[in-house]
Amino acid sequence: MTGAEPARATSSEDAAELVAQLRELAGADPADVRQVVAEVLAALDRAAGGALRDHLPEAIRVDAGLDEPTSAPL
Questions:
Q1: pLDDT cut 90: percent of the chain above it
Q2: I need a surface site. Which of 20, 37, 39, 45 has the fewest CB within 10 A?
Q3: 2-13: b or e for each residue (b if 16 or more CB lie within 10 Å)?
Q4: CA-to-CA separations, 70 to 37, 61, 64, in angstroms, rounded
Q5: CB-based contact 42:66 (threshold 8 Å)
Q6: This prediction's pTM
């Protein structure tokens, strides 16, 4: 290592930055945030080989396009 490598943010710093960005988006349009989160979760699920969807509530799986709703909305 030469010491010229950029400093790597910690996981908590990364998470805090993501939360800040989502809050900024939510102020503009909550529907946009919901769409972004759904796309991120779908990408994470694909990267995990489909293992993430088993840990998500049904409503989130449906929003992310990972599952079909089990009942029709009222």
A1: 3
A2: 20
A3: eeeeeeeeeeee
A4: 21, 11, 15
A5: yes
A6: 0.56
